[in-house]
Specification:
The chain is of the alpha+beta class. The chain contains 20 helices and 23 strands. A hairpin with a 2-residue loop joins strand 12 and strand 13.
Length: 685
């Protein structure tokens, strides 16, 4: 064979990388974003036994990030050594790695950061007459100079990734990056409530947290109203000690975010222990809801390994099952104490008790749903029997009232006593009549007559679904002929025929008999598809009319969410949801979209923000992302009762959309069961 002259293997010698190149490679593991820098500097301050720590950022840390503490401080020799790889004061021998008691122990943070940013250090020790100022510019060391300051250290990071433009391109928007910084700040502020913490953004104070205890710190961060929803956790299993708090229903959310796990006050993440917490709630939490918790584990450092992740996000326990059981029993015990004291973690709605939902946590389609007595039996088995109060009867309704749950009542009685208003007006299309389902409230809004509009290309089946977490299987679309028949018996635009063979199943699915068999529509995702296309059209070329509120609704948001609201504000206004900043973390809702009945404007806005933030990792156009978040949170929910007119209006409007078969996230809207399918289920074929 004739040689081509090309070498199959490089003919170079193995060589030691220059320190600057090695530092940049290490920075790829340690420095992911500005929040990673803040984390490393905060950990150094904590290890230096600081009692006051202040973080200041400009443009979410992309321009400047500064951490100031009153810890031990450093002299000139310490500062010069701190910027060398693997230089640390935390460990001396290999044996020390089995007994890690500090946060930052690898000695990689400062040299890695300095290799991709401009760094300035100002530090002073108590036993030195003067401090030292030292600068490193992209790994190039400058001169050290004497400087005046009190004991402690200030490290200023400027122009992060200025010399690695490829890395800078992968950073998210300033709002997202700032959100990560706030999340990290909260973690350490919760883990060390006895310290004084400050966070400043672009020259404005965001947090000034005075020293307190753990409960006090939670209230500082999440508001005094959280106090009534906190349940103290205290458990010990062998050498594993657990303390902290779990939150009741008032702190439940539909997404992760306010869950804090610590081992020896080191923050970490664990899907296994999150499952233990959810399992501890058992039937007290609905599928899809996420509980609030702050849980601190304390055990021998030799019983866990923190050196399994480059950024130390994860921890490996020697006895994972024992830690899991401790968390499970700790949460279950805290909730059991609350139930026995009459301080119930959740308050069930009458409809949930009547339908056998909520407490059981089982599938809505379960053939024999559990009744109130089944729920109480399950609660007793999990949390212990509830003590009977004087004068209480033995029937299940009295037990429900005794535990703080409303007793089941009829619809008419619930309406007479001002029951919950459904979140759907029935006025979806210009041909639909106004809803007759239940009394209207001050927050009810009538729809202006708007024509259906086409949407841009939407994700189809097989795309990632953030609600479910797994890819959806692609499959054949439902029978178009059956769908058109379900939309109306007569030819022409949907809605001209009056449908009476329509039923609501478990207040979640709409069923309709068609010539070919049975059509099943998920009412939430159907309404979500409708609202998505309308919201997207509103943001692009046809603004949606808004219904002005008689009194603006005040909303207080987290600092990170305030930045996101600024990004969303213009797009939301075009959907009719008009908001404006007041001061600091306070915003006001001035109008809501016309034609949508909204139960709680504040909750709607906060849920839209949360969903929008969680979708940053999904590569959607910003307008599509906002439209999807708005539609998901404004749509009617599973569990909302619909009357015949409302179901017909929903069907009419659904089949006027461009993509009626999938919601914006790719979830199926319509399922068609043909007679062939039904016959096969019953063995007729």
């Amino acid at each position: 064979m004739q040689s081509t002259g090309e070498r199959l293997l490089p003919m170079g010698r193995i060589q030691v990388l220059p320190e600057g190149v090695a530092n940049r490679i290490a920075a790829g593991e340690v420095v992911e974003r500005p929040a990673s820098v803040a984390k490393e500097l905060i950990e150094n301050a904590l290890d230096a036994e600081a009692t006051e720590i202040e973080i200041s950022v400009k443009r979410a840390g992309l321009d400047e990030l500064m951490v100031t503490d009153n810890g031990w401080g450093m002299d000139r020799e310490d500062v010069l050594l701190a910027f060398r790889r693997h230089a640390t004061s935390k460990i001396e021998t290999a044996k020390d790695l089995q007994f890690i008691t500090h946060l930052g122990f690898r000695g990689e943070a400062l040299p890695s950061i300095a290799s991709v940013a401009r760094v300035e250090v100002l530090s002073k020790r108590d036993d030195r007459d003067e401090g030292v100022r030292y600068q490193v510019d992209g790994g190039k060391a400058g001169e050290s100079m004497p400087a005046a300051r009190e004991r402690g250290t200030t490290i200023k990071i400027r122009s992060l990734f200025f010399n690695v433009p490829a890395r800078r391109k992968f950073l998210r928007t300033p709002a997202t990056e700032y959100g990560h910084i706030v999340t990290g700040f909260k973690r350490y502020a919760v883990a060390y409530p006895e310290l004084h913490w400050k966070l400043n953004k672009d020259g404005s104070e965001v947090y000034d947290l005075a020293p307190t205890d753990l409960r006090g710190r939670i209230l500082q961060l999440f508001g005094d109203e959280a106090a009534s929803h906190l349940h103290e956790v205290s458990e010990r299993s062998g050498d594993v000690v657990l303390s902290g708090y779990v939150g009741g229903e008032g702190l439940f959310k539909r997404s992760r975010g306010d869950q804090f796990l610590f081992v020896n006050r080191r923050p970490f993440q664990s899907s296994s222990l999150h499952h233990a917490v959810v399992n501890g709630f058992g039937p007290l939490i609905q599928p899809g809801e996420v509980p609030f918790y702050v849980l601190l584990l304390r055990l021998d450092p030799e019983e866990f390994d923190v050196n399994v992740h480059p950024a130390k996000h994860e921890v490996r326990f020697r006895d994972e099952s024992q830690v899991y059981r401790t968390v499970l029993m700790g949460v279950r015990g805290a909730l059991g104490v609350a139930i026995k004291k009459g301080d119930s973690p959740v308050k069930l709605r009458p409809a949930q008790v009547r339908d056998g939902r909520g407490y059981s946590g089982h599938d809505l389609m379960r053939p024999t749903p559990a009744g109130p007595r089944d729920h109480m039996r399950e609660l007793n088995l999990m949390y212990g029997p509830r003590g009977k109060k004087t004068g209480d009867s033995e029937d299940s309704s009295s037990h429900l009232r005794d535990a703080g749950f409303p007793d089941p009542r009829s619809d008419s009685e619930r309406q007479r006593q001002g029951g919950p208003v459904i979140g759907f007006s029935g006025d979806l299309s210009s041909t639909a009549e106004p809803s007759a389902a239940g009394p209207s409230s001050q927050q009810d809004h009538r729809s202006s007559h708007s024509q259906p509009v086409p949407a841009s290309q939407a994700p189809l089946a097989g795309k990632y679904d953030p609600h479910e977490g797994d890819p959806l299987p692609a499959g054949p679309a439902p029978d178009a002929g059956a769908l058109s028949h379900a939309a109306g018996e007569k030819e022409g635009r949907p809605g001209e025929g009056q449908r009476t063979n329509v039923w609501q199943l478990h207040r979640t699915y709409i069923l309709s008999q068609v010539k070919s068999g049975l059509v099943i529509i998920d009412q939430h995702v159907a309404h979500e598809r409708i609202l998505y296309e309308k919201a997207l059209a509103a943001m692009r070329d046809r603004p949606w009319n808004g219904q002005q509120l008689l009194f603006p609704v005040a909303v207080q948001v987290e600092p990170a969410d305030a930045a996101i609201l600024e990004e969303m504000r213009e797009g939301l206004a075009r959907t009719g949801l008009e908001i404006e900043p007041l001061s600091g973390r306070d915003w006001a809702i001035k109008s809501v979209p016309a034609g949508i009945r909204i139960k709680n404007e504040e909750k709607l806005l906060l849920e839209i923000v949360t969903d929008y933030r969680n979708q940053y990792e999904i590569r959607l156009d910003p307008q599509e992302r906002l439209a999807a978040s708005f539609a998901c949170k404004a749509a009617i929910k599973a569990g909302d009762p619909l009357n015949l007119d409302e179901m017909n209006a929903l069907i009419d409007e659904l089949f006027l959309t461009q993509y009626p078969f999938v919601c914006p996230h790719g979830r199926p809207v319509v399922v068609n069961l043909t007679l062939h399918d039904l016959h096969a289920l019953f063995g007729r074929e």
